[in-house]
Amino acid sequence: MSTALDLSLCTAACNKFKNHSPRCLDSHRTRHFGATLEWSTLRTEFASNLLLLLFLLASPRAQAMPGSFSRSGVGVKGDELQTWAYLLLQDRLSTAGAFTICDNDFSDQGYTIRSASPGFCDLFEYNAMESVGHRCCSFYGLFAVSKCIRNVKKNAVDMTLEDIQQGIRFAHDYVAKECRATKGTWDTPSSRLGYAVVAARKKSGAVFVCEIVISNRTEPRTGWQYTVILHRDISDKVPLGQFLQAARPGGGFEELTQKCKSNMHERLTALGIDTRSSVLYFQEKVREMWTDKLKEPQWKQKRSCSTSTMYRSWEADL
User: Fold this and answer.
1) The whole model's pTM is what?
2) Which whole-number Å values give the CA distances from 87 to 37, 122, 218, 227, 247, in the listed order?
């Protein structure tokens, strides 16, 4: 298929969505606080054209097109995303990014998960309802992996159970340090993304090495401080045994982490999403979550007086 034809078909598909705003899709999706957009409720024509758009933009030729969405941020209208762009980002960020959106309430057990993408659910084998409301360290780090330590022993036959536990704790403490280092950069994208490599556990009990990328932001209209975490299984590059051998003082864990981190920018670039569009996607997603939560009277009553004016003024725009 020629580049011109690719562009023509992309344009035709985009025109199907450009006149819709995310707020016009309420009748096509189930909206629950922390739940992701439900594809099954989209109209057949809308979904089929979206799939065409995803196919074309995912193709190598479309990726290389001058002015393509992934390179130029087309689909951004003012400070909002057009609906087709929102859905495209939903697909790419979810599957390739496997993200969670969390409160900014870091503790030794991590952040509280408020939204879990389908990619995250697939990676950890939990559905969204099983994930939302739990601390992220229920899925990776010391508290998660200590529940199946004997499964880990199968991948580290040369290590004692005590050595394995110490290695998992060492890596857990490194993650905590990274989370604290990114805390406080609210008004702009984090000047220092948090990055760590950690042992993680699937629902089945399988343990794998997980890369996490942490970014802190503030949604400008609501003032909600939130954290976005991307996850990826890197066991094919860092086997669990190698990870545990390095996770000790003098074991080369810092060097291992930096080596993995050096490939992070290539990975994020490979998603084919420009920075501004991805930020706008998360801002729109967070506003949806906030809006849904504001509709719960009991939650309103729990808000502190210091924030009551802020959310009342924003609620007036709904």
Assistant:
1) 0.62
2) 9, 19, 22, 21, 39
pLDDT digits (tens, 9 = 90+) for 178-215: 888 876 444 455 456 788 999 999 999 999 999 988 88
Q: Which two tokens stand for residue 113?
A: 């998960």
- Tokens for 28, please give them: 């096509």
Which residue's structure tokens are 């860092």?
A: 238
- The domains of the chain are located at 3-97, 100-272
Low-confidence ranges of the chain (pLDDT < 70): 1-97, 157, 183-192, 265, 267-283, 287, 289-318
Tell me the residue type at 100.
Answer: T
Distance CA 99, CA 103 (A): 13
Task: Give CA–CA dist 306/304, Å, rounded.
Answer: 5
Nearest-5° angle of CA 134, CA 153, CA 99? Answer: 30
Tell me yes or no: is domain 100-272 CATH 3.30.450.20.
yes
DSSP structure class, residue 41: G
Residue 115: closest CA among 101, 103, 134, 127: 101
pLDDT of 268 reads: 62
**CA 295 to CA 314: how far, in whole Å?**
12
Residue 318 burial (CB count, 10 A): 8
Q: How does DSSP assign 286-317, residue by residue?
A: HHHHHHHHHT-HHHHHHS-HHHHHHHHHHHTT
105, 112 contact by CB (below 8 A): yes
- The number of C-alpha atoms within 13 Å of 173 and in the hemisphere containing its C-beta is 11
Phi, psi of 59 (to 5 degrees): -70, 145
What SS3 state is found at 144? helix
pLDDT at 306: 34
Where are the strands (E) in the chain, listed by range? 76-77, 80-81, 100-103, 113-116, 194-201, 207-218, 225-233
